[in-house]
Amino acid sequence: MLDPSSSEDTGGESDPEVVQDPQRKPAASSSAGKRESSSSDRTDGQHLRSAAPGSALGKSAKENSTTGEAQEKREHEQIQKEEEERKTKLQIYVFVLRCIAYPFNAKQPTDMARRQQKVNKQQLQAVKERFLAFLNGETQIMADEAFFNAVRSYYEGFLKSERISRMVQSGGCSANDFREVFKKNIERRVRSLPEIDGLSKETVLSSWISKYDAIYRGDEDMQRQQQRAHLNAVSELILSKEQLYEMFQQILGIRKFEHQLLYNACQLDNVDEQAAQIRRELDGRLQLAEKIVRERKYPKFVSADMEALYMEELRSSVNLLMSNLESLPVSKGGPDFKQKLKCSSLNNSFLDLGDEGAILSKSDIVLSFTLEIVIMEVQGLKSVAPNRIVYCTMEVEGGEKLQTDQAEASKPQWGTQGDFCTSHPLPSVKVKLFTESTGVLALEDKELGRVVLNPTTNGPRQAEFHRMVIPKNSQDKELKIKLVVRMDKPPNMKHSGYLYAMGQRVWKHWKKRYFVLVQVSQYTFAMCSYREKKAEPQELMQLDCYTVDYCDPQPGLPGGRLFFNAVKEGDLVMFACDDEQDQMLWVQAMYRATGQSYKPTPPPQNRTTYCRGGNQKSRQGVEELISAFPCRFNHAALFTILQKNTLKHRMNDSFSCLGWFSPGQVFVLDEYCARYGVRGCHRHLTYLKELMDYSENNTLVDPMLLHYSYAFCASHVHGNRPDGIGTVTMEEKEQFEAIRSRLMALLEKQITHFRYCFPFGRPDGALKATLSLQERVLMKDITTPVPPEDMKKLVQRCLEQAAQINYCQLIEYAQIKGEMDPRVTPEKRLEDMMRLGELCIEVLQQNEEHHSEAFSWWPELMTEHAEKFLSLYRADMDAALQVQPVNSWNSFPLFQLFNNFLHTDLHLCNGMFHKHLQDLYVPLVVRYVDLMESAIAQSIHHGFKKETWQPVNNTSATSEDLFWKLDTLQMFVMDLRWPEPEFAKHLEQRLKLMASDMMEACVKRTKSAFDAKMQKVSKSTDFRLPLSICTMFNVLIGAKKQCPKLCVLNCSQEQQYHSKIDVLIDEALKEIISSLVSKFAAVLDGVLSKLSRYDEGTFFSSILSFTVSTYRNSYKPGLDLADTYITFVRQNQDIFRDCISDELFIKMVYDQWYTGSMKAVCVWLTDRLDLQLHMYQLKTLIKIIKKTYRDFRLRGVLDGTLNNKSYETIYNRLTMEEATVAVKEGDGQLGISMRDSDEEDD
């Protein structure tokens, strides 16, 4: 991963004076040549046509000719420029190929965060359509209303947002961002829901997320989506070499056939060649460093004392690369021999390695070979009978002996394989053929033949016949055996074969020997000569500091046709072989082993064989690229091109990378920097430049990535690196200061436009990281922290500008017309302010939800930002309210909108905007309450004058209107939720007092109307309770019910004051009930007065008694008066039950009515205690009492009230009178008795 902990300054030692110039200018392409020749022809023709002197046509042709020449020149320059760029990219690709083919410094990181697939415009449109289909009910997904509302809010506020479209366009938005925003929204909603028994909120959240996934996915095949996601995830992880090759072909624009040519020419599949290339590169870096020391061509540093430190950095970087290369394994099971690089005298002074390194001994050379011997068959066996048993044995000198299976002599075939291990480069392999001895005294089987072989690693690997050596007197003259002998080459054996050799220190005699080129370690190779059946070399030569090359034939050395030599100071070794291909392979192997910078060139007669096909021009171009000496290039400039193109490729792929490279890209860039000495500071500075270019073009870049690179550069420039002080060039310091200024401006812009650079808080934590990076950039050095006030002032300035920008964007989005537009009506302006106010609140809520955490260190600054934002709205709001009509109350919803929002915000509640809002609406509220009080008073006055007392919702029309107005007014003021406590208390007290006064007037008017109505009703049994009386009763009951809500304050003192209206209503109800009961009692008094005419001893008594006795047999006397009264009671009870709305008061009336009736009858009977009741009186009273008792009991009067003392007295008196009459007159009562059951006896 590219961060300060993993990126190391390897000390770029590329000499600025020794930079590879475009010395080999490629010839223009054939098409360009044709274009140039044709343009020349045209130019010549134009010159011919313009030759006539004084001709206007000639002048015009001359001007056209000049223009054409300039155009052709520009085209030619453009072609040359493109060709140079292409050649540079091809050269970079060669270096990249080597980094991929044989990495020894970096590995592909496995701990990088996995990047999500980015969402493009088409996918965004598809997601919008899917969510809209769900909202329109066009899907099969079942959901409740709460989830439906959540999806609608998400669709309107997020998916349709212009900021999301910009984020998608910038390539920094993934499906995971969509999901996280929805999850955050529903978490807030679900938290506000009430608890449900048996259903946890976590269950609701998981269910909603599952439904969201179903909507987002739509009709896509789930399995196909998972497969695609899996493939994408794999491409983000470890890549193979082939995948890396293909990736960088796309990055650098390399065609496939070009890659194939370069791959073959660089021998990327040859590990030895790649290791040798690295050794040559390191040797070249050492030579370049020595040249810098010798010629004192140092880069320009910030301090002159850094020159020695610079050389120390070069020494450390090369030593590190050497140790990395040395740590790579070169053999399996060899000795633990690690040989340091033994350099030439040119580089010893520079490296200062201390010990010169141990000289190889013969015991250090250990080779291990594996032999496979397969015995196939024997031919020419004639001396043995066909039915005899034969078998073979095989052994390697010094090893165990193996035997084949037995076979008949007529068919001697086996196919048996034997595996052997040996340390002899020229082992002796013996294969013998035996037959079983039939003699009794024979101790050993008879040997029929043998063959002795000395296989090598270069020998044939297929089956071959070998003539066997037979014993004397054997008849099998043509005995042959078919064998397969394979000898595998160990990893540390690079080449082998027979050569003629002679040297000054070793191999002092010219003769043919078997040689093996052995790699002991990454930097140590030895040329060893072996004898047969020997594990240790006879002689050896360490190839350190030798140079190998082709040479001319030596006439004085017989044997060998093709010569080459190895030379170093004080020694010359001459080699020769007979085969041209063998010579070439030996030279190439020794060239890779010596690590020399000079590449041997075969003689002219051999070059046709050396080149691998293709035309000469292509071979020259490829040869130039692969033979270019890496140390002569400015790798800092080449790496800048490579990193730029890699980042461009990364930003354009299908992942939302935010500027992070993929693991494979990080691996190649790390390896390139380490191998070719790109300074870490230069790497991060160029990376910062590219990332800032993308950020300035509205592409999302992770600020953490900027932070990592900037922190590394800052620590490097300020000399506070974790690994110690390093050299700092003037160029690095100047670039760093320029980048610091540019980064500071960029970060200020991002903080100012935080709503648009980080919409809905995405990427997660990016705004917080940006603020942290801004604080780091403000630091003048790496150790001195930024004063908190400086950072606070910067953030404050950014947020002030952000408020202005956000409001202007909101005005533009809402399409609000200016206040000077005369076509805009006051109603339209108020409507626009309402819509704009809703948008402002939405912006502030989003800021609190998605961005407040990032500014948590300065909560007061976010409050100031919100107040500044609202102050801009305040100006437009004041202007809109000023043009509203005086008596218009349509602006109250605007106050409620903002007050409800500000009331819940701890920072903005009673802030500047909130107080201004209160000051603006206090006069409106007071005026509104005054007008409502006057209107309600007038409605009471006029309403009761015209009141018909027809029931409206169990009350009168006037009282219903009064209760509704008072309740609506109080609810309106309560919904205002006035934030200032004193004024809120004043409003509440005033409304309660007003309600009490209005209620008192209503009660008094109703009581007056009731009294006037009761004076007009009759007192006979024909009296039926009027509907208007019931309505008046209900009005008072309704007033009593409304009184606690409308008239009573929570404070105890006002409770005492407002209790007067309760007393007034209670007294009015008592008076009404008493008046009704009195009216019912008056009717009963009339009935009793009629019965008084039958009193004993009166004048009318005898007459009425005679009348009654005359008609005794014709009807039941006394029932007419009782029936009329009973009918009166029942019908009034029904009216009361149907028309009165409160059961408590109905019961109260029934109780008082029954008690008064029983008391009146008891008094009437007490007055006639000394008189015997007349038969008529007795019958009438018995029926009235029985029916009254029964009816009131059915109406719910309790037994305690029914069986009071008056009733018991009446019951006893009537029972006694009944008994007296029974004694005197027998069955004179005709079945009417106090002891009868409660059944109706009509």
Automatic annotation (TrEMBL):
* Gene3D superfamilies registered for this protein in UniProt: 1.10.357.50, Pleckstrin-homology domain (PH domain)/Phosphotyrosine-binding domain (PTB)
GO (cellular component) term, any one: presynapse
Keyword terms: Calcium, Cytoplasmic vesicle, Exocytosis, Lipid-binding, Membrane, Metal-binding, Protein transport, Synapse, Transport
Q: Quote the Pfam families the UniProt record gives.
A: C2_CAPS, MUN, PH
Q: Name one GO biological process term.
A: positive regulation of exocytosis
UniProt lists compositionally biased (Basic and acidic residues) regions at 33-47, 70-84
The subcellular localization recorded is: Cytoplasmic vesicle membrane; Synapse
Q: Does the keyword Ion transport apply?
A: no
The PH domain covers 492-595
Q: Where is the MHD1 domain?
A: 875-1006
Enumerate the GO terms in the molecular function aspect.
lipid binding; metal ion binding
Q: C2 domain spans which residues?
A: 352-469
Q: What SUPFAM superfamilies does this protein map onto?
A: PH domain-like
Query: Where does the record place the region Disordered?
Result: 1-84
Asked if the Swiss-Prot or TrEMBL record annotates the protein with the keyword Ubl conjugation, the reply is no
This protein is called what? Answer: Calcium dependent secretion activator 2
